[in-house]
Amino acid sequence: MSDQEYIPKSKAAKWFNDRLPLLTLGAHLTDYPTPKNLNYWWTFGGILTFCLITQIVTGIVLAMHYVAHADLAFGSVEHIMRNVNYGWLIRYIHSNGASMFFLAVYIHIFRSLFYGSYKSPREIIWILGLMIYLLMMAAAFLGYVLPWGQMSFWGATVITNLFSAIPLVGESITTWLWGAYSVDNPTLNRFFSLHYLFPFLILGLVVLHIWALHIPGNNNPVGIDIKKPSKDTVPFHPYITIKDAFALLVFMIIFAGFVFFTPNVLGHSDNYIPANPLVTPAHIVPEWYLLPFYAILRSVPDKLGGVILMFSAIFILFILPWLDTSKVRSAVFRPIYRQFFWILVIDVLMLGYVGAMPAEGVYLVLARVGTIYYFLHFIVVLPVVGLLEKTDPIPMSISEPVMTGGAEPSLARKLNEKV
Amino acid sequence: MKKFNLSINKIIIVLFLSIKPLYSAEMTDPIKVDWSFKGLTGTFDRASLQRGFQVYKEVCSSCHSMQYLSYRNLGESGGPEFSEAEVKAIAASFEVTDGPDSQGEMFTRPGRPSDTFVSPHPNKEAAAAANGGAYPPDMSVLVKARKGGANYIYSVLVGYEDPPPGVTLDQGVYYNKYMIGNKIKMPNNLEDGLIEYADGTVSTVDQMAKDVTTFLAWAAEPELEERHRTGVKVIIYLLLLTTLVYLSMKKIWSRIDTEV
Amino acid sequence: MSKEEKKVNRRDFLFTASYTIGAVGVGAVIWPMIDQMNPDKAQQALATTEVDISQVEPGKSITVLWRGKPIFVKRRTPGEIQEARAVNLDDLPDPQNDEERVKEGKDEWLVMLGVCTHLGCVPLKDKGDYNGWFCPCHGSHYDVSGRVRKGPAPTNMEIPKFEFFR
Q: How many inter-chain contacts (A to C, CB under 8 Å) are there?
């Protein structure tokens, strides 16, 4: 890579850079050779960085006004909404920001699944990403408790009770998490502390995630290894930065639409009722981004079984790089896998849908079918398809076909016709 | 293959669009009202807000608290926008408990604009005890705390009916078409001509229900007008910048052979 | 050649416009993040307070809280007023007549912000070399009119806006 050769022009800069090579890092990030055929699905990395920074900045600001006490939390949120200068704006950005963050991360994850970005040599990037995702879910859950509305309280009760399913020590762990004999003021206080901590852990993991990415470099829609730098690559700046900026702006328009015009549509109205330990809301559901897992949890009639299955649904992703036996990365050249990929997308969406519905009748059946397929996809479909599938011919480099054809679906079609 | 992908995309879109409607069945859908505060540029009807405050003060406030509002809010822009003198007079018409004084005693004094709305009961338990065991919910964010929002509140206010045959109601329970489970502990407090509106509007039940719902919608979202105004500006700004960045991107990528 | 130049110009314009408008947006986003730390609407609304001073004996003072700061309300004796008015203005670091610091006709009432103008401590009453207040933090002396006489404080103690009623 070109960054080894970077020498600052001025003497002072060289002096500094010899001691702390920040300028070398800057030059590396600027020149970083990136495949030139990255499509818009690749812009979500930048969008996610934006989401994280937005959440951290607005979160720090909100913490200046929020009071983590069971008697005062709900009122302090109303104080933010009514009295603090621009408080309503900052809080709505933060609460909708969580949803936008998850929207982006799901697209990012499914992009990786489609183009095989989790495969060798990018397993560590994938695992770091999953750790970020896990921490995101934890942070989102903790944050949702803070307004101390009905959904906060009962969400906290239900989620912490998941741990009570653990044999022998479960009850003790749950009590330990609460710091009381139910979700109460000590719980709220520690949740606030952890909610403030987690984003910075995420930030650290993001640095590692990007570091690990910059070792092999980006995957690309064709999924083949490319020489760097070469005519297949472009420098990160300005080509990728401007493209990321454009995609980010489009994303921000949608974001702003939620914040300014339907700020509560993604939340639940019951969370504007102050927490009441005596009354559980009739229809208790988690935020939308956790619904698929909620559906898996409820699809099992056994308490421990449901919890194990739900956590397995996430942890199975950690061994995904070794479950997928195909040598070809991109689904563009994998006609069979591609269909299963879309079935998985529908399956997860369906699980999300039934997760929001009462766990009875046809919804329960759908949840079970969806859960079974989810696991089948990873345990059976991926290994078997990888071995049996006849993949489409793969081009030698990304520039040749790109120069003649343009975008990648036509490239695949052209290659198909040739065979 | 491309065809297959496309049809799947369509299925996904259809799935998404059909997610909302299927919810609980034992209540009638709320009446859809064409509120002035709906839509991207919606604003509150000032006269209706002022009348709504009157309904709140003369009817609702004897049972319901609104603890997150202050009298000064009544004069702030985007709200009922009473004049400063009116706000002072409204605040002063309430007895506020203050203290302790230098002798350690609590005392009452006329309200000031900076005071929060006086609650009818000292605490939740007292409120429940005074209302047959049912706590009349605080109304500060009521519109946001109910599925269906303003439409739902309005519908409940006008939704009182005689119970259909076969439905028996306990003492202090009333039948309401729009309430979840159709049973409500709040009696129908509105009747035509109940209030003498300061602006001379005829106080039909429908008028009062609309006015007080408008007032409650503002109480729950006092930032609504500013939010809408800012939102329009932000979106226009983002569209402009997006266009510029898009053109810049096209320009930059034209240096190489690849399409963006 | 000219065609290419035109191209360059348009590109430059596009980039400059993008950067400029982008920077305006960033600025517009930063402002709310700064302004949120200013006193909120509830704080601003607590701008007035009422005090009952009927119980204050001549020569005594009371301290009340206003906007989180102490307000000294001192009922001065005729002797103290005389003393305050006998001071030669040239001797003062921040020259000001006692008459300017009280309401006409209510000369006995000295109402001032009980905060040392040096670094914000609360001065002790009936202490110091000038029969007024003395700030224990860094040794500023104030007289019976609340004017600084000695020490690091740059100005007299501040007189807030107030009025008598009833």
A: 33
CA distance A275 to C57: 51
Q: Is residue A245 part of a domain?
A: yes
Residue A304, domain extent: 287-397+405-419
Q: Evaluate whether residue A136 is within a structural domain.
A: yes
Q: Which residues of B touch C25 (CB under 8 A)?
A: 237-238, 241
Count of structural domains within chain A: 2
Q: What is this model's ipTM?
A: 0.91
CB-count burial class (<10 Å; 0-12, 13-18, 19+) for A135 = middle
A58 and A157 together in one domain: yes
CA dihedral C74, C80, C81, C86 (to 10 degrees): -140
> Measured between beta carbons, which residues in chain B are less than 8 angstroms from residue A335?
1
Tens digits of per-residue pLDDT, A33-73? Answer: 999 999 999 999 999 999 999 999 999 999 999 999 999 99
Q: Is A30 exposed, middle or buried (0-12, 13-18, 19+ CB in 10 A)?
A: middle
CATH code, domain with A180 = 1.20.810.10
Instruction: Please state, rounded to an integer, the average pLDDT across all residues of chain A.
Output: 93
Say if A207 falls within a structural domain: yes
Q: Tell me the shortest Cα–Cα distance from C67 to chain B, in angstroms.
A: 13
The answer to whether position A8 is within a domain reads no
- Judged by a CB distance cut-off of 8 A, whether residue B168 touches chain A is no
Residue-wise pLDDT tens digits, A149-175: 999 999 999 999 999 999 999 999 999
* Among candidate residues A284, A308, A327, the one where a domain is terminated: A284
